C-alpha cells in the first residue's frame, strides 16, 4: 500500500505503473477486493531477505568496526566516539547490502498485475534480479543508494548508539 501511494502522481509526470488510489483506506480496499489477502503481501519475497541481510550486516559490521577503531587507539575503549564510528561504518554496510533488495521489493510491489494477481513484469524475486541485472547492469540494483543511506545511515548510527548505551546500563 505504501509503495502504491508513494509512486502515485499526476499523469503528466508519472513514471512507471500508476495504481490511482484515493487514500490509504481505498488502497487497502482496492487491493483486497482485486487480489485478496495475498495481494497485500505481494513483494514480501524481496522484503524478508532485505531485513535479514540488513540486520546481519548492521550487527556484524558495528561490532567489528567499533573494535577496529579501539584497537588502533583512535578512540578509547567504551567511548561514545568509538560507538559513533562503528555506527557510521555499519550504516554504509547496511545501505550497500540492503539497496538491491529495496530495488527488487519496490519493483515487485509496484508492478502491474493480471486478474490472477500475477506480476506482468516479473515472475518473482529471482526473475526480477535477473531482469534488472541483464537490462540495467549490476548497478541497476543500486538505484537510489544515496537516498537509502540518507535514511538508514542516521537511523543505524542512532539506533546502535542508544543500544550500546542501554547495554552498558
Automatic annotation (TrEMBL):
PROSITE patterns: SOLCAR
Any matching Pfam family: Mito_carr
Coiled-coil zones: none
Localization, UniProt: Mitochondrion inner membrane
Domain of life, source organism: Eukaryota
Alphabetic keyword roster: Membrane, Mitochondrion, Mitochondrion inner membrane, Repeat, Transmembrane, Transmembrane helix, Transport
Gene Ontology, cellular component aspect: mitochondrial inner membrane
Membrane topology: Multi-pass membrane protein
Keyword Repeat (UniProt): yes
Entry annotated with the keyword Oxidoreductase: no
InterPro entries documented for this protein: MCP_dom_sf, MCP_transmembrane, Mito_Carrier_Antiporter
Solcar repeats: 1-68, 78-169
PANTHER family: RE38146P, SOLUTE CARRIER FAMILY 25 MEMBER 34
Family membership: Belongs to the mitochondrial carrier (TC 2.A.29) family.
Protein's recorded name: Solute carrier family 25 member 34
Taxonomic source organism: Pluvianellus socialis
Higher taxonomy: Eukaryota, Metazoa, Chordata, Craniata, Vertebrata
